[in-house]
Amino acid sequence: MSEIIIGIDLGTTNSEVALVRNGQVEILEIQNGSKLLPSIVGLADDGALLVGEAALNQYVLRPENTIKSIKRRMGEEAQVELGSRSYTPQEISAIILKRLKEIAEKHLGEPVEKAVITVPAYFSDVQRQATRDAGEIAGLQVARIINEPTAAALAYESNHKGEKQIMVFDLGGGTFDVSIVRLEEGVVEVLASHGDNHLGGDDFDQKIIDHVQEHLAEKYDLQASDLSSQVKARIRRAAEQAKITLSDNPFAMLEEEYLLKWKGQVIHLSLELERHSYEEMIQEFIDKTLEAAHIALDGAGLSVSALDEILLVGGATRTPLISTRLENELGLQPRSEVDPDLCVSTGAAIQGAIISGQQVSSVLVDVTPYTFGTSALAELDGELYPYTFIPLIRKNSAIPISKSEAFYTAFDNQECVEVMVYQGEERDALNNTKIGSFHMEELSEVSQGNEIIATFSLDIDGILQVSAKEKKTGKEVSITIDNAIAQFEGQQMEEAKARIGQLFEGEVDVEEEGSKTRQREQTQARALIEKAQRLMESAGEEDREDLVDMVEQLNDTLAKGSDGEIQSATEQLADLIFYLES
Ligand code: AMP
């Protein structure tokens, strides 16, 4: 077997290690199921060296004995203090690299000697050399230093034939860069890169921290200067957690019991933050990243339409507003199915395998081939429309996945909501495939705007669980749709098989056919009713009245009429719709 060259993403906030064995990429677990090693080094009270999670935990208690974000200082002639000694940035980075090397050795059960290490595309020669030195200090031969966007492109497209122009949008904890790369026959070239190495998820956290501090100032007259560094570190942690929660949920609670004692009073933090308000807070940062994306495109001499893919890299790109804004402005749905935190180390491992002459299979990730969502009264092409499709789980998302959205009742004392579940890509939900629906009844008697949280969870076996929860009371209703991914195709396949089977047998089950016809007629009648309801908004008064009458009549016959009556009421409504539309 050829020698294994490990791939390392030496990040500002987190670092990861991966390798290729038997053609498959393996991303190594660092601790407790996590594949991220916080890029933090610290010294414990007893002088023990702490790396990663342990150093991060100590940061809350003793920030002064902890070193974070050393990557920012790579290439500087600087010394950082740790305990009674001082170290160069290369030495601190080497401590992180050494830990990753040990993890790989433990995993493989043999020594590891070589590594590919990634750096940002904008790193200067001096910074690259410092990274190489760090590798050597850690006891690694650095087989190659490669650009992070190059690694990301390799993770997605290692086996791609032909040419592709790709935007790699990388927003980590403390740095942002966007690169345009060209992939040609497996060779990746960075055409342009632009960014801001002081912009990232930490800035998003800071906005939430400011918000918490405003709350503390208002409620308890507590100023930032009154807070100890431990209290600040706890607030920072809670803020980051809330931010992460908001990526999948419409609101988050910032809760810290016994935060501090102030003027003889114990203060517990309990503050709700809605995604909508949070998105307003970070809007300015997202604007900046989009400007940078355009600058990078200009730098590469490419127009938006020349882009084939947008790849998302870095933990902070899980913020849904980023995908939405990119898609709106650049007209391409960004891809994120290779875990944005692990994408660069995956590519580094693939590069390592290529250097050592190993074959690498494409990185396989389970994704959903469809979008799943619900419908609601919302704007569609500038007009309010009751069946606007609200996607919750987007096509090509890696599964398992769980996403929640908030919806609001439209009327005072509304007792019931119907939750529709659709699969499809159309903005008009009625043009998608309805795969389920359920009612939630006996809602609280409150004015309109009662908040209902819908949650869609899709697991690896294609089972979709949809729930609706009244936020005020916690009351919840849910359904499970087995085989949500395959259902449509499977159903069609079964029907086709049955039809063909019947052809061969030369006989058709009359009763079954009859019930199918009835079902079809009822579905058609319901679709017509929905269409009529849409037409009501634009129809003149007289036509509207006719529509209302006929819809009522059809609804009545559907509830208690015979087949013939349903058919005749359907035809009448169809005629009127035809007349109104022509
Ligand atoms: P990286 O430097 O790529 O490891 O990214 C770290 C940043 O991603 C930190 O600011 C994290 O708080 C942030 N992050 C991680 N997960 C999420 C998430 N689900 N939503 C938003 N930000 C996240």
Task: Based on the model shown, name its key terms.
alpha+beta, Substrate Binding Domain Of DNAk, Chain A, domain 1, six-stranded mixed sheet, binds adenosine monophosphate
Mind explaining what this structure looks like?
- This protein is of the alpha+beta class.
- Helices cover 40% and strands 29% of the residues.
- The protein has 13 helices and 25 strands.
- The chain has helices at 53-61, 89-108, 125-137, 148-157, 201-220, 229-246, 275-300, 320-330, 343-355, 484-505, 510-538, 541-560, 563-581; strands at residues 5-10, 14-21, 24-27, 37-38, 41-43, 49-51, 66-67, 80-82, 85-87, 114-119, 141-147, 163-171, 176-184, 187-196, 251-262, 265-274, 309-313, 372-380, 383-393, 401-408, 417-423, 433-440, 451-458, 464-470, 476-481.
- A hairpin with a 2-residue loop joins strand 8 (80-82) and strand 9 (85-87).
- Helix 5 (201-220) runs antiparallel to helix 7 (275-300), helix 11 runs parallel beside helix 13 and helix 12 (541-560) packs antiparallel against helix 13 (563-581).
- The model is unreliable at 503-511 (pLDDT under 50).
- Adenosine monophosphate is lined by residues 11-14, 172-173, 200-202, 240, 243-244, 247, 314-316, 318-319, 341.
Structural class: alpha+beta
CATH architect. name of the domain at 6-158 and 337-356: 2-Layer Sandwich
Q: Globular, elongated, flat, extended or rod-shaped: what is the shape?
A: globular
Instruction: Give the proportion of residues in helices.
Output: 25-40%
Q: How many helical elements?
A: 13
CATH topology of the domain at 6-158 and 337-356: Nucleotidyltransferase, domain 5
